[in-house]
Description:
It is built from 10 helices and 10 strands. By secondary structure, the protein is an alpha/beta fold. It has a single domain (20-270), classed as P-loop containing nucleotide triphosphate hydrolases (Rossmann fold), CATH 3.40.50.300.
Amino acid sequence: xxxxxxxxxxxxxxxxxxxxxxxxxxxxxxxxxxxxxxxxxxxxxxxxxxxxxxxxxxxxxxxxxxxxxxxxxxxxxxxxxxxxxxxxxxxxxxxxxxxxxxxxxxxxxxxxxxxxxxxxxxxxxxxxxxxxxxxxxxxxxxxxxxxxxxxxxxxxxxxxxxxxxxxxxxxxxxxxxxxxxxxxxxxxxxxxxxxxxxxxxxxxxxxxxxxxxxxxxxxxxxxxxxxxxxxxxxxxxxxxxxxxxxxxxxxxxxxxxxxxxxxxxxxxxxxxxxx
Length: 275
């Protein structure tokens, strides 16, 4: 199925010029018989940074993973509702999850470079996907976009594991964008980093927005307010059996979420009254 075929619609919470890249409509996510996320509906606009915030256990990362079908890898996990990418149902039987993950990349909380050279970290996915152009140019372009080229250009044959934590995370971002995704999902990409490395990651996110749609999960509300254009606030409630079920409280432009939210729960969370 061709993921380049665009059938975008306008987001009701976005400006007129913004197009919807990812859409969740009444999405519920289960692990076995246990409901983890309940009926989430939201639109992710193109070339914007969307932040998912909320307390632990409210389903932020679970929802994030459903956008590139990583939950498929968890036994017993299933998704109900509609998840679309450029208007295409990602859970259609004809859709190849591997192709989904090529178009919708992922950067995890803990930097996880392959135990290979910096060069091979960048080219690995491209080769796997049949890339036939100049690999040297691909490596330089990807590392430049990840603001890492000047720091590693003279040691491309050294192990990616030899880099600092912040450099490793930028290497993972470079690796993700080397296969030319349209969307990059990031699950707390700076939570394991020092303040200086975190600042570099945030600066990088703002630059990457020019070419990619970014969805980021973060526990750091200041980070969400600094880097994102849209913010979704999630909360969780306990079931009779004591399990926690995540749900979307409010989704709007970041400035509004942090300065004039519509929901009292949101106001309490962003002002530090709970969470």
